[in-house]
Amino acid sequence: MSHASLAGEQAALSPHRFICFCLGGEGEDLGGVVSACEEVEWADVISLLRWHRVAPLLWSRLEAASAAIPEQVISQLRDMARESRMSALKHSAEMSRLSQALQERRLPHMFIKGPALSMRLYGDHSQRQCRDLDLLADPECKLALSRLLKSLGYVRQTPSEKVSDRVSTVYLQLHKDWVFYHPERRLTLELHFRLDNNPHLLPELSAKSAMSRGKHAGLERTLSAEEEFIYLSAHGTRSCWARLSWVTDIDAYVRSGRIDWSTVVKLAGQWGVLHLVQTALLVSGALLKTPDPLKDLRRTWRYRVASRLARFCISCNKNGRFCSPLRKYLLLSVFSFNWKYQYYHWTHTIGMSSNDVVMLPLPGALFSLYFFLRPVFWVWRYLVIKRAQFISDQADGI
Question: pTM to 2 decimals?
Answer without folding.
Answer: 0.84
